[in-house]
Amino acid sequence: METIDQRYLVQQNKLSDEGKKPPVFAKVMRSKEGKFEGVSFIKNKEKATIMTVSEAQEVIDWASSKKVGAHEYATRIICVGQ
After folding, report:
1. How many CB atoms lie within 10 A of CB 25?
2. What pTM does this model have?
3. For the purposes of burial, counting CB atoms within 10 Å of the CB of 27, is it exposed (0-12), middle (13-18) or buried (19 or more)?
4. Which residues of 35-53 are buried (b: 16+ CB within 10 A; e: fewer)?
5. What is the pLDDT of residues 66-82, one digit of tens each?
């Protein structure tokens, strides 16, 4: 049986607040069937969604295309321990 490598978070920093405010983390919203519906960014790292690299990339793609003002943020994938 193959184990799924779920150990990544998506972190977002506002470019104009670099170093001034703490980053926010992605919490993925899914339907009852498990279908990806969107993302909200929260301050609490412990409540953020831990995901695979491909799921994290899906979050970044969604945030860059759907979020108003996405160009004002640096969004990146980090390991859980970072």
Report:
1. 22
2. 0.84
3. middle
4. eeeebebeeeeeebbebee
5. 877 888 889 999 998 77
